[in-house]
Amino acid sequence: GQQVMQIPQYQHVQEGEDFTTYCNSSTTLSNIQWYKQRPGGHPVFLIQLVKSGEVKKQKRLTFQFGEAKKNSSLHITATQTTDVGTYFCAGLPNSGYALNFGKGTSLLVTP
Amino acid sequence: ETGVTQTPRHLVMGMTNKKSLKCEQHLGHNAMYWYKQSAKKPLELMFVYNFKEQTENNSVPSRFSPECPNSSHLFLHLHTLQPEDSALYLCASSLKGGGTGDLDTQYFGPGTRLTVL
Prior knowledge:
heterodimer, A: 111 residues, six-stranded mixed beta sheet, globular, B: 117 residues, seven-stranded mixed beta sheet, 55% strand
């Protein structure tokens, strides 16, 4: 079946270090979305990428969509303790009916 | 506040009980979803309703029974659950479902933390 793989599963960084999480899909995606879930909270939409090779930035966060529309990444520059949480990618397959979520990357930032 | 509410926020039930989870969205969306989130499988799609019609059922056991009386309300009826069903049950909505690109952005409710004894 259609799957979205996400790595790493966990990442522990010192405040100020950079962080990257990667998503790979077994099929071409119509779009990919990123969500953040704080500890004890629920997933919150961050951004959507639609175009091949698209790059979008939100302050210290940079999102990329691969040329083949099968992979994506989220990069955080100079992490802060407020970045703690689990980051999920979710891909909508070209022929799909609903988003396929990755298993998420849990980020821990220590001061 | 995302415009999606869920009740109750916490639920403890025995294996022989019958209970229902409720979700309501105030966003004018037409698609609603139930997800199960547990430590073993972080985010599993259970059911999708698009314009009140069930469009996806991801091989969910029959002890979970969804109901969507209108586009704003979604229920998950529970009966004879197992301890392994303990998890966070998240409801979400989107403007449309079914591969409509940016109309699929999902807005999640706070979830119901379910414990089955």
